[in-house]
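Re: Re: token formats

Sure, here are both.
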Amino acid sequence: MSEVYIVDAIRTPIGKRGGALSGVHPIDLGAHVIKAVVERTGIDPAEVDDVIFGCVDAIGGQAGNIARMSWLAAGLPQHVPGVTVDRQCGSSQQAVHFGAQAILSGTADLIIAGGVQNMSQIPISAAMIVGQQYGFDTPSSGSVGWTERYGDQEVSQFKGAEMIAEKWDVSREDLEKWALQSHERAKAAIAAGRFDNEIVTMGDATVDEGPRDTSLEKMASLNVLVEDGRMTAAVASQISDGASALLLASEEAVKKHGLKPRARIHHLSARGDDPIFMLSAPIPATQHALEKTGLTIEDIDIVEINEAFAPVVLAWIKEIGADPAKVNVNGGAIALGHPLGATGTKLMATLLNELERTGGRYGLLTICEGGGTANVTIIERL
């Protein structure tokens, strides 16, 4: 069977809202990481078969197929195409899956997969705000089929996070302890230089801007998002700006271009769950991936699960039986930020570097996504 290799994976520092990347045009953010991955790997850009990028809320500066626009803005060959993917928070992880599937099918040999998001310029759900002028209050408003199946109940990530915390009996205190740990781990990782190999600086953006000096006492003083709820802003991911990219190669391309791959794709899949819970799909998606591969969670050395909200991670740990010491060991999106369309390949870069740092073999990445879906990618360090 043919193989898909990860040759390199890079990202910008993650900027906080209004931070060092907030004024950068999204196309230029994307161009920056594309150019960087081309330069770091030494590939001939004319040999790239496709550029696949994730991006959410593709309006304004993120419209017009930003994968293609970013490639061209990087000054690279016009004959190379590009396509933009929206699988919500897992968009760039899905970009990796589509790229890997193209290589496995034999229709491509070199793919640049990644993602970009400037949430300072284009806020989350901006596309829905624009949609209101055309008479759509929510994405499902007016849909007969949706209403017949799910009624008119609220569909939101905040409600989903509350429902997960309640179903898996995760207390507010446990949520805040995980959030504090995320900040502490992230600050320790930055101080130790663990992100240095994956970060390509951009102007004044030289380091991740998200981690805060906080405490359980500060978190406990915050108001909950809904009455009698457990969720506060302290246990949610941060609004962020950033871009990320990696190079995928076939076995033939590795030999032809003299590339030195760092990992291979061992498994990729996606699964869905209740869209009202919305954020619970990493659980069945992980169960499916482990069953398909014959691996157990004990075989996985490092896990990156996106910290959209703390209950997503804690419910997953409970259900899967994972060792918390292996999960988000360098902090997660609560501390480091969640630039939507860029998060998947950003986490892939972190996962790859941590496997190399620790000598681990298998790494697992999963992300909850709007609509109640989740991707799982398992990579094997070479």
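Second one below.
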Amino acid sequence: MEEFTPDLDRTELGKVQIAPEVLEVIAGMAASEVEGVAQMSGGFVGEIAERLGRKNIARGVRVEVGSREAAVDVSIIVKYGHRIPDVARNIQDSVRNGIEGMTGLSVVEVNVHIVDVELKAEEKAPAAPGVEDYQRVR
């Protein structure tokens, strides 16, 4: 599939084009709202950019756009305890519905890449009274 900006609508006033980045934002929002998704995974560079203060809603999303179709790849981190096949299927449905509903493009595939599992944060047990923390390394 070629990567270019599709001409969705030509009228006497001009044409309407949707940039691939817009589809990435739509897909990112749709995927992140699915129950069981801990966060999107944009890799090392995306995480550095976010730490520098740049919020990227499309983090972990790659879209290929044709004149009438789109293919999407989504990389996510799943919350521990959620059934991965169910989360993946819900992401596929949500992304497809979001893109098709907002743009009119046909989504031919949504590939979900599970890159990690977010474990529940364990509560730190309080230390026993009178017992000091032992340091192994000084």
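The two ends are 58 Å apart (CA to CA). Residues 99 and 110 are 11 Å apart (CA to CA).
- S.
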